[in-house]
Amino acid sequence: MEEKDQSALGSSPGGDSERRLDDRERARRGQRAATIAAELSVQNVAAVALTWVDTSGITRTKGVPVRRLQEAATWGVGMSPVFDTFLLDDTIVSGRYAGGPVGDLRLHPVLSRLVPMAGMAGWAWAPAERFTQEGTEHPLDARGLLRREVERLAAQGWSIRTAFEVEWALSEGGGEDFTPACGGPAYGMTRIAELSDYLRDLLRALDATGVSVAQIHPEYAAGQMELSVAAEDPIGAADTLVLVRETIRSVSFQHDLVASFSPKVLADAVGNGQHVHMSLWRDDPVKGTAVNAMAGGDGPCGMTRAGEAFTAGILERLPALLALGSPSVASYLRLIPSHWAGVFACWGHENREAALRFVTGPQGLRSHAANFEVKCFDGAANPYLALAGLLAAGRAGLGAEAVLPEPVDVDPASLSEAERAERGITPLPSSLRESLAAFEADPVLREAFGDEVIDTVGVVRRGEIGLFDGVAPEEIAAATRWRH
């Protein structure tokens, strides 16, 4: 559960609540941290890793000894804001609002999510919220941005359940090259047999940290695996994704393996996606429970009118949302037709070639299971930014009472250009430059994110575009392989 915020509230220019750490809230956090620190010491935990995800999608961290957890929770841990403009190779660019050597902010652990790391003996983990030195939420804190979007939907009576699918490729040993850690056929039981000890230890580690794994299986590419987790609220889902990936990484190291979450590990192989499953819910006072708007209606595939509008809002803005969900130059090496990457801006019932796949679930579970899957997102995404963009687009769809086009029941690539044009099926952007232009021009995302976030995302994306300008796909894949 997301920790209740007891801080004083002010008003931001956009009218949303602005969190402030007052003396009472600092004392409450410090007291809670002191209790947790005592429990961690008994468990032989020496330090807590505080993580946040930067604009390039890389998880950054600062660690504190357990004895300093109370101070960190009360006053935060200093960190330069310059990390908002780091590129994936750790070079730094500067924009209007971020970049450069001047300034500082404070990392505050989210104590409700703090947990010992089962794959890293002696360490615990907590996502960090970023505040200014004056105690206000930092304007470029992606977790705070997502929280505000959740609150905007909640003010209209809606909640979201979401989960990520995590794909990763395993390589033997160290070094810069990729050597698949298993050689069995795609989706084959042989791969489970080859990596049974590793996968067993991974599942046990995730269970020990409270992660509810739904399923795990070999994927298509050499050495590739996939893991799905249970749905939760958007902030919780993004936090869980970070925890899952860092657990995968650490357990892999324990087995002399290296995990890559890059969208393109090898230029000529299938890449890693990071698909998002999402459903829209509303409390029903008659039933006394929340009801899934993606089922039980008279709209397409049983959606309610609101469920359709929310989904249509996201479909309409997918070209712009790619700058958040497929944010690397390497992402566009993955977006290839007929590779289940969802490269056409269309939707379909259980259509794995549509950018939005609608999932009804089995008969008898549809009221709970119905959701849509965003297939065009990948592991280079900052999950907080990606989900914030999806919620803003869905909220705009609700406000406009948007309507979905006709569903697509074939691989769009199998249609001629004329047939696609007749059915209104358009390809998604084929480059980061193209998706960034759509992102910066989108009024809904600019209103939701604010100029500071829009400008910083643009600066970082253009920095990566320049970094790989004229570089061959094989070199792009190699340079990106071990960064996420």
TrEMBL record:
Segments of this protein annotated with the region Disordered: 1-30
Question: What keywords are assigned to this protein?
Answer: ATP-binding, Ligase, Nucleotide-binding
Q: Where is the GS catalytic domain?
A: 142-484
Q: Which spans of this chain does the record mark as coiled coil?
A: none
Where along the chain is composition biased (Basic and acidic residues)? 16-28
What are the residue boundaries of the GS beta-grasp domain, all occurrences included? 43-135
Record flagged with keyword NADP: no
**SMART domains hit by this protein:** Gln-synt_C
Could you say which protein family the record assigns here?
A: Belongs to the glutamine synthetase family.
Put simply, this protein is called Glutamine synthetase family protein
